[in-house]
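Limitations
The structure tokens in this dataset are predictions for the assembled complex, not deposited experimental models. Users should treat interface geometry with appropriate caution, especially where small molecules or nucleic acid strands are included. An illustrative entry is reproduced here so readers can see what is and is not provided.
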Amino acid sequence: DAGVIQSPRHEVTEMGQEVTLRCKPISGHDYLFWYRQTMMRGLELLIYFNNNVPIDDSGMPEDRFSAKMPNASFSTLKIQPSEPRDSAVYFCASRVSGSSYEQYFGPGTRLTVT
Amino acid sequence: AQSVTQPDIHITVSEGASLELRCNYSYGATPYLFWYVQSPGQGLQLLLKYFSGDTLVQGIKGFEAEFKRSQSSFNLRKPSVHWSDAAEYFCAVGAFSGGYNKLIFGAGTRLAVHP
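Predicted assembly:
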């Protein structure tokens, strides 16, 4: 089975540009999570969805960040406009109901904003 | 509030030596506990998990962890470390909040292995 798929794996962009990160969860999983990892703050939960509906977005740092899940097999995390402090590795994870919290992570997208 | 503490930020061991990574959690109910490993440039991979039953759980790559309720700990162990074990290790507790389940992660422990 394919795991969680993220694209792109690396993104370099200039400050002020729009950035879109993409995630395909494991088929059949009904929860999807977006995390951000930095040296300073570690692993932070940004937002998560259940059955394509955003449940908790309290971790989204500010209005420049938005996430959508138009269907069960696709989600995006968008940053507009991007800033250098957004440089981080962004992970997507998914899980299935009843799996007692166990999440499966994608390989991550390393974002660099110059 | 639920939380996870990993007291050691960096640990260095020699190849072949034993390893123990510490994890302490704070959670009011019976915890669901996890250890994940992150190799350089990779995502997080589940090593092992504890839900109930036997307090000593076995995982992949020769790792094991022991749940000790009295100490609120879930330490990860390996009897003989291999160079390929160099990675960052995250302890996590499953938290039930607002009607939904999510994971609370510790800050991680970075393991270096000397040949």
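Some entries come with short summary sentences. For this one: Chain A has a mean pLDDT of 94.
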